[in-house]
Amino acid sequence: MSNKFISHEKLRDWLEDLSARFEVWAPVNTGQDAKGVVVYRPFVRDGALEFARKPVESAKHTVFPRSETLVNFKTGAKDGKPALELHVPEDPPARAVFGLPSCDARGFQIFDPVYNGSGTQGLARDNYYLRRRNATVLIVKACSKVLNTCFCNWVGGGPACTEGADVLATELPDGFILAQVTARGEAALGSALLAPASDSQEKQARKLHEEAGAALCAPPDLSASVSALRGKFDDSAFWEAEASKCLSCGACTYLCPTCYCFNITDEARGVLGARIRSWDACMLPLFTMEASGHNPRTGKIQRLRNRIGHKFSYYPSLHNGRIACCGCGRCIKSCPSSVDIRRIVTDAIGITGTAGLKEQKNG
Amino acid sequence: MADAYTLPAYDPGQRNPYLPYAATILEVITETYNIKSFRIRLDDEKAHREFAFEPGQVGQLSLFGVGESTFVINSSPTRKEYLQFSAMRAGEVTTALHGLQAGDKIGVRAPLGNHFPYKDMQGKDIIFIGGGIGMAPLRTLLLFMLDNRKDYGGITVLYGAKSPEDLSFMYDFKEWMARDDIKVVLTIDKEAPGWEHKVGLIPNVLTELDPGADNAVAVTCGPPIMIKFVLQALKKLGFNDEQIVTTLEKRMKCGIGICGRCNIGDKYVCIDGPVFTQAQLNKMANEM
């Protein structure tokens, strides 16, 4: 199949065209100037689309909302007797996310087996996730430049990796070249506004992919992370040193494309209410606090150990060795105290002198 | 186009694991000053009739507007007229639960988790060691074994609490003590007026009882401090770690291995547990 092309001038027309069939989301600069924060927002024609800088947040919430209703309930009485009515909200609209980096798309692949109840973990399928996941088309934008916090190539990804993407978009000087990756991607590419891509455009795109790939430092071998972290579990001196800077704020989990933990709470007013699922974080102290007051992860040391352990040891041990990190680097870039997940993992494995990772002492 | 990845399908027909069954409380039993038992029946008669679970599995009770908490189903799958849950008043949900009465509505998501290895226990002598509310998970297995009595060897039940006022399920114990096919021993920590049974800490009474470890399985549940000393006592009595079965408790939300709260390393108490042998626990991360 030949690839498509959309010029910068016609991009908004195409996204508007897509909006007839999808709720379209795209990265938007929410500030007043070029330094404004870039986040994903529902597309509006006059919105400040931005593709030059990587969004501060991941695209996780386009499929896994920060908060969603699982069940609406009505309590109270009927005919003088206690009554209870339960309703499940209707299916959400189909979505298309345009312009997410490859790491964000790969993040959903970490969710998939857990929320599908497959593998050794999980017995029940999470319909709320699966219905949104299946109703969302991901149009990945290949990264043309990589940040010093990017490490997608450590965990199997790359700036133009198509894993998890339905369409791969590459930004050229005059527009985007669009390559269909999955059958689902076809639904987004069926537009008369799209022109066939020329050979020279294809060539330019391949060159950009190669250049971005080459800009990443050589990755260390993380295959020993499962056993290394298991071995470090009881090494409190190691974890104290690694966690010393951590403020336990949980920002890393909020921005992470693969952190999938949640809380379930009820909100009610009178007889009407909703059971709501909201993002939660293993970095927060109340996450595991029991009614008795007992807490198996009382300190930030245990909590950081769980977060790193889950991504680089527990999850891979349950899912054919796949590391539950997509290397987006947001937890590094946005950490207020510069905790670097790459350092913790390489320290645990005992890898030194990693290219691109400044040598420094923790604490 | 070399995309070998298959997106997991969405099947709207499959049961929604987060949607509780609506149920009605048939009876509330006051066990102690802070423990109550609730006998419930699913409102959908067909769902109730077809509801199947194994001894040791748990359920999430829903108080709409307050939240959910996890409790073991402590009735036996062999007795189907109701599902029984027992709760010690501790947090928001259990406090609200204690305010409910017969006829009130409740939600239940069950069954969740694994179960006691009751098939592996067939033909063996069973010693139950329960402390306080920890008798609840043992109750379901004990009732199940009594309804399949010929499948098991000798059955001994050691149950204790701080004082007579802290003992639950006394209606069961009255019945069990009247039977000649199980041995029942009750104990309290300190002398109390009118108490006719043992006085002493559970691990000490266990040592005194000296149930043979040969071809036996010990099933224990209770407060952590009791478990710690019961394990020591069992070891001295010759029980190895494969012969000791217990249940764990963790804060849970989803109950289906997703939400990330109850993991101990790569094990999830809500799906890999709550029932574990001591041998399994020894291999798990030290994060109880």
Key features of this structure:
heterodimer, A: 363 residues, alpha+beta, eight-stranded mixed sheet, four-stranded antiparallel sheet, 14 strands, globular, B: 288 residues, alpha/beta, Elongation Factor Tu (Ef-tu), domain 3, Rossmann fold, 2 domains, six-stranded antiparallel sheet, 7 helices, 15 strands
Summarize the structure.
With 363 residues, chain A is of the alpha+beta class.
Task: Give the SSE map.
The complex is a heterodimer of chains A (363) and B (288).
Chain A: E1 4-7, H1 8-18, E2 23-29, E3 38-42, E4 67-74, E5 77-78, E6 81-82, E7 85-87, E8 95-100, H2 102-115, H3 127-134, E9 136-141, E10 167-172, E11 175-180, H4 186-189, E12 195-196, H5 199-215, H6 225-232, H7 236-243, H8 251-255, E13 262-269, E14 272-279, H9 300-318, H10 330-333, H11 341-349
Chain B: E1 21-30, E2 35-42, H1 45-50, E3 58-63, E4 67-72, E5 83-88, H2 92-97, E6 105-112, E7 125-131, H3 135-147, E8 155-161, H4 170-178, E9 183-188, E10 198-199, H5 202-209, E11 216-221, H6 224-236, E12 244-247, E13 263-264, E14 267-268, E15 275-277, H7 278-283
Parallel strand pairs in B: 7-8, 7-11, 8-9, 9-10, 11-12
Antiparallel strand pairs in B: 1-2, 1-6, 2-5, 3-4, 3-6, 12-15, 13-14
Helix pairs in contact in B: 5-6
Largest sheet of chain A: 8 strands, mixed
Specify the number of helices of chain A. Answer: 11
CATH class of the largest domain in chain B: Alpha Beta
Provide the β-strand percentage band of chain A: 15-25%
What distance lies between the first and last C-alpha atoms of chain A, to the nearest angstrom? 54 Å
Biggest sheet of chain A, strands in spatial order? 3-2-8-9-10-11-1-12
**Head-to-tail CA distance between termini of chain B:** 47 Å
Q: Report the uncertain regions of chain A.
A: none
**What level of helicity do the residues of chain A show?**
25-40%
Assign the CATH superfamily of the largest domain in chain B.
Answer: Nucleotide-binding domain of ferredoxin-NADP reductase (FNR) module
The succession of helices and strands of chain A, N to C, reads EHEEEEEEEHHEEEHEHHHHEEHHH
Strand order of the largest sheet of chain B: 10-9-8-7-11-12-15
Q: What's the average pLDDT of chain B?
A: 95
